[in-house]
Amino acid sequence: VQLQASGGGLVQAGGSLRLSCAASGRTFSDYVMGWFRQSPGKERELVSAIGRGGVGIYYARSVRDRFTISKDNADLTVYLEMNNLKPEDTAVYYCAASPEFVVSDYVGAYKYWGQGTQVTVSS
Question: If pLDDT is split at 50, 70 and 90, which confidence band does 93 have?
Fold first, then answer.
């Protein structure tokens, strides 16, 4: 499966962005879809993920109640709506697909990766 992430940018603290991840190549429902982020000097971390068929949603504690993940099976796109952004949300955001049957926060479970999109939140 091929993944193409977009929607990053520069925003002030308190602002919002919506990331999109367009998928192609396989049936969308065959994968758990996740959004990871990585900032300089830090490990890549799972921000949010949505299970096959939309069953099972995970949010990192740091983004809970601010970020919302969703997917459109018709458009083969996964979205990450990010509200009330904070400077600590600054990172490169990656979308990824896992063939596992359950949502996992293990980076190695995700076999396919998009190219990353930069999100910068200014204070």
Answer: very high
